[in-house]
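Attaching the record inline, Q. Sequence:
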Amino acid sequence: MKIIVAYDISDNIRREAFAGFLKRQGLERIQRSLFIGRGGSSLVKDIERMARRLIDQSTDCVHIFMLSGLEQTKIKVIGRPWSEVREHGIPAVSII
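Structure, as predicted:
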């Protein structure tokens, strides 16, 4: 099963802590606040527990999507994937 986690966390420290947690769980960042990885229901529960501990539920939000093998075949990527951009050292964001 693939797990997709999308979040909007307003506090920088809590946001960075959550992103670090997701990375340590083996998920890969594909956008600034979007991670994807392989896992099962126990990983989803761990992510849920961490989200509940870290976020301010009055202002922040975490979405967790679980995709079966069939659903994974429906994923479409238009343009250069985030992981490919990061691997080649191309800046993902240009600040002017």
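Strands lie at 2-8, 28-31, 34-38, 61-67. The chain has a mean pLDDT of 85.

More tomorrow.
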